[in-house]
Amino acid sequence: MSKRDLKKYLNELNKEQLEEQIINLYDKFPAVKTYYDFVFKPNERQLLQDFKLKVSNEYFPVKSKKAKARRSVAQKMIKHFISLGVDPFVIVDAMLYSIEIAQTYSSEKIIKQELFFKSMLNSFEQAISFMIENGILYDFKNRVEAIRAEAENQEWFNVFEFNSIIEKFDY
C-alpha cells in the first residue's frame, strides 16, 4: 500500500474508527507503544541514563566476570534514539560515551582484536558526521579532542585515522 492509498483510506474513517485503529496498533506493536510513550512523556534524561548503564555493563559487567564489549548494543540503542527523534545533544552524548567507556576498558585490558579499534574508529566517524549534520560539533569539541588524545595515549594502531577525521573540519 502506498502512502497515498493509506491517506485515502484514513480519510474515509471517522474519528472513532481512527482512534480504534491507533489503539489496536498501540496494543499489537511494541514499537508503536514505545513511540507513543516517548511522544507523550519524553524523558530523554532517563533514556540516556539507561543507555549509559547498559553500555557500561557491556564493558564492566556487574553480574558476570567477563565483559562482552559489543559495540552493537550501543549502536542499536543510538539508532533507536534517532528513530524516536531524541534531541541531537543527547544522541551525541550517547555516541561519545560509548567510545569513552570503550577507551576506559581498553586502558585496563589488553585488546588484541583489530576489529575493536576499527569499530571505535567507525563510531567516532559516525559521531563526527552526526555532529556536523546537526551543527553541534563545536559544543562537543573538548570531548572529541579527549577521545582523539586518549587513542593516541593508548597507542591505538589507527590513531592516525582519528587525527585525519578531526583534521577534515575546522572547529
Summarize this structure as a short list of keywords or feature phrases:
171 residues, mainly alpha, elongated
3D architecture notes:
The protein is an all-alpha fold. Helix 4 runs parallel beside helix 6. It is elongated.
Query: How much helix is in the residues?
Result: over 70%
- Quickly count the helices: 9
Radius of gyration: 20 Å
How many runs of DSSP E, i.e. beta strands? 0
**Overall pLDDT:** 92
Class per helix and strand makeup: mainly alpha
Helix-strand topology string = HHHHHHHHH
Shape: elongated
Residue fraction in strands? under 5%
Major sheet attributes:
none
Distance between the termini: 46 Å
Please give the structural blueprint:
Layout: H1 3-12, H2 15-28, H3 30-40, H4 44-59, H5 71-84, H6 88-108, H7 114-134, H8 141-153, H9 159-167
Helix pairs in contact: 2-3, 4-5, 4-6, 5-6, 6-7, 6-8, 7-9, 8-9
Offer a quick outline of the entry.
The chain has 171 residues and is mostly helical. It has helices at 3-12, 15-28, 30-40, 44-59, 71-84, 88-108, 114-134, 141-153, 159-167. It has 9 helices and no strands.
